[in-house]
């Protein structure tokens, strides 16, 4: 290899960028793709990058990596930990961190492209490399598609992609059918009436309204969803007030709803909205809450036949024991939009990023949940090796499966 | 009058400054006091100003006005409404507004000093004008005292001060004994464990912990305080999270506690802390919540004899019908520290700032609570006239009562 | 005295009877009154008793004692503790106890009548002794009035009555104006949908609905009532379900609301109903909750002039130090209906029932709340002496004040 | 048939008996079994009945039916609806209903025994009929085993049993492996301090403590259990207080916990106990809650090989389309104890009891959850035909599978 992937990963990790602000990351990725000989277009869907490697007759494979980071203040203690800060969409200064591993996604993609370029005599077809922004807002795939991605570049016959996850490094997790959940993001504004902290009766206290709403929302999952069904209702953010002696006029809640079975979406949304409205009534609010949909993500559903082909290739490459069915994930992705809009198969898999010994020890001690940091945690850390190598190989193997 | 007090008020209203950031306001006040012939010292207790008018033998009267504004985004729709913004102590950009009328306090003080200077042949003694910062943080009086105010300037024989309030303009409210409540401000950090919004079981959700805590804190007043006693437990601010699909690692609550009877302080604090700790336990938190005292304010207790003298002077000046006993306020003040530290009497009163016709109409319609905005509301607005004139006269009358 | 009042008290204490079931107590009281020469009518207002002692020209004084006990299982450990049980209005078997001291009320009344009969040559007028049932349901006074009490017996010029309370024995507490609170009792049925405990999604869980309602009701007092105002919202009973693995179809709540200022009644009732309805909506209930008013009690307001007379008489009899202003009580009484319906003055006072040394020790240790059991507690116990003697004397003194 | 099974079912339905009080039901079942020629032993495990039909060499099959009813007041409106009442273990009078179909279980068992007797020449072995009490308390199987059932009667080679459920009549649901959940029943007493409803501060309010506990328990499922795992935490009963104006001294909660994966048991129990204790601390309780285990039920796990045999027999008898995998049930059973204690295979299945047309209509309208009453609902009603016939046949077919 001529590209120093470890250095690339560390550089990306040190310089995370929030969704739709990934200008530095995009420029780096575009630079590498150009150096490797691809025809590169920048600013597709605001900050997205598309690189095309036309290599003769044959199928068109879209290989996608997402590149945005999160408003999380890193606490890993790594030598190359991020100290970056930025301004989030609501104007607050926040720490920024690659707490979801998209730095590794870009790194592995660049490595895989280098490998595919190196072996271009062995395969035939067109590779379209999609460096996508704003996956964390569930908005980047849609932005690229709305910017004409399917029309401006060779249309795919298959879409592939991968996500690093807290498995032991060396393992691949993939399954046909439902792989990740559908999801909705809601931004809720509860309208109260502000006033002096010493005169609650002259106000309609939105802090209490918000607290009661959060408590009541727990009952959607605990009481109203069939225990056999999988649904998650998370309030990821709650904000109200500026000072202890002022009762503010409103409070905001940011909700993340998950349901692998899209049939649950409407029911859960209806229940959540019912609770939010009723709790405002219980507070005597003069105005209904404002409920805004931040994003709507489809379930990530792997095509059965294409996934079978990819899985067989993985087994051949990594050994049967290292390719598992990881089960359905409650997390969500917007990669599906590329395949859904194009009407073609999707294959999306996970690969491990944790030191295998550390993982095995945690399993033995039943401390996986407390010791192995998950995606989005401020302690999330990917073992550099062999994670890069396995990620490069997985992408290469899958692409070759469809390009050969 | 040679100073245009209306222009001064409007200028101060348009240019509000947060606690301990009142450099512009302090400079304006200092300028006027110097122009009026007082010996002025700036930067007493960070941004405070003290002006001394030595006018022969006689008592020393400290007249205090506070000058800081609040992190509230003005919604009054006034032509001279504030559009100022600033950075609060936690680094967030916030709107700033004189939502507590301290602009009027400074204005009335400057007018009263002008009047006392004009009539200096009629009285004898020393007037010490105290322009205090950071009343809203309960920290400004303490800062001035810690900066040697009692030693560097003539010690008081009496401390006087006033606060504008949503009474009809023209009315004075004053009572001997307890006038305002003792108060504590608490900043609480609830420690959870962060993670992905789709994997709540791998986290200790601080949003739910905070919501449960807020709901349980309601029971301190509803169940644990004798219904005959007056206590207020307000959570003025709640903050957690940056994004809907990340469960954050911690949440913060800012509490304002009020009790006119200082004997309740210890009991209420103990109950509040018990609830906060137990709710963290209910969440399975691995770490106790961090509870920091932001400020501790004493009850504002008017000296009986001095208040009787001032009240008689008010009755003579404004008529019996316009001088009422306003009852005990649940709000709090740090003006007491000046009198307590010096061991001298305090007289602190309220004066009205609402158009009397509008007020009477609201009383008739039983809409006072919903239509007359209270201090700290984004709709709080003081009727310029006759509020300035009554404020000037009240301060002058009270000062002359003790200086004659 | 010829009647053994201690034996009478112990007998009544051992044989408590629930509201409107006081047949034994009524018969005993009626027997004594007849023996003393009064003209006695039984079954006035179901189980009430009225005795008339016409003693020449002069005013008519109604002296009232209530006689019912409570569904409380006694835990005092007294030698003469009650072991009685009975069936409450909902058909449950409950322990019964004189946990509110009505046994002492009847005892003191019989003693006072004996004394007034003995001294009948010293006064002139008519004494009407009212032994009232069902004070604890707020229904007994109304029942007697609805049964024609004002028409069938000499109409009062004044109504007097007394209540034993956890003061030191020997003390009288009385004040002109508001003495006890207005109160409403509500019985609420929350309608859910029952089902198997393992299938919550097929039900509308009334246990969760009830719990959320109770938590939200706390905010009426903590947030919506002016901290200067006194209001109490108590849920005294909550019931749902028969078995851990059946989700029941409904839940019941029994509320007691208190407000010394009757102007608060409508506001608090409206807020309470708003919360109850909204929480049912939050649960997705298909039917609004049923809210039934169990009783509505007026504030107990002492007539100023008559109370001044009685207080002066108490001071003369017991010494100034033993007659205090007890402040406003949050408890409620239905004695007012007699005076309100007749349009005459009411004087209602408290007398102490706790051993003075024990009380003083608790005050010194700040353990009054935890060690001196209040009315309605299973540990409530009245010191027999001198409570009987003081109660007899207080009633006699007050009656004589109006009869002389 | 000579026994009128419809009449038997209606008679049992009209005369339901609570757990361990099933004397009438037991006598009827014993009578029929004796009439059919079995050797019958009564009072095995208090009210249980065992009938033995020794029919030559061969395997021993235990066929079990449970017979107790529930404290539910029937609301089906059926002509033969129960109007029975009884006294539950806490001494309350409750309505009684066969809301779980055990009347049908006994009926089908009697019919199957009659059929097996009739065809005794066609099979060889020993049939042991187990009429079990107190399944609803999770106590009856244990009681029979503790009473020596395995020693006093021929030991089983296989245990079979069935449960009627809201499937379409005609359908059989069965699966190898986990079929029903493990379960624990907890009875919790929360210790507060009682007092007068108007003096909450002198009490420790157990109603609020209970409500806060119920709300917090919702978060065990909504936040602390992996969304992929199935767990149910139901509070089926909450009780406190006797009267609106008395704050009681304690509250009780009855919990039903479910987890098909027994590995979850310890974790969920620990979380539930943590919440209950912490909420008592939040209330300032002076005593920890009392937590008593009412019952502990194992998961109902069907033996793979035996279930395969029975399923094949069902398919042959009812057609492939009528034998489905019903998935894992969140409900629980104590039938497992017979097989676990004996160390032999278990086969336990469900059969449908709803009119197929009504069921299909509800499916089409997406109203199954609201219109088809589940077990334990006061509206639970079994379609008499063909439910009896299918139940008889299913038992007969399964028994014959192992006896032939």
From TrEMBL, chains A, B, C, D:
Source lineage: Bacteria, Bacillati, Actinomycetota, Actinomycetes, Micrococcales
Cofactor(s) the protein requires to work: Mn(2+)
InterPro entries given in the database record: Amidohydrolase, Bact_exopeptidase_dim_dom, Peptidase_M20, Peptidase_M20_dimer
SUPFAM superfamilies recorded: Bacterial exopeptidase dimerisation domain, Zn-dependent exopeptidases
Cofactor note: The Mn(2+) ion enhances activity.
Annotated GO MF terms: metal ion binding; N-acetyldiaminopimelate deacetylase activity
Full protein name: Putative hydrolase YxeP
GO BP terms: diaminopimelate biosynthetic process
Alphabetical list of Pfam families matching this protein: M20_dimer, Peptidase_M20
Transmembrane segments annotated in the record for this chain: none
Residues reported in the UniProt entry to bind Mn(2+): 100, 102, 136, 163, 376
E.C. number(s) listed in UniProt: 3.-.-.-
Name of the gene this protein is made from: yxeP_2
Keyword check for Manganese: yes
Record's keyword annotation contains Transcription regulation: no
Keywords: Hydrolase, Manganese, Metal-binding
Residues covered by the Peptidase M20 dimerisation domain: 185-280
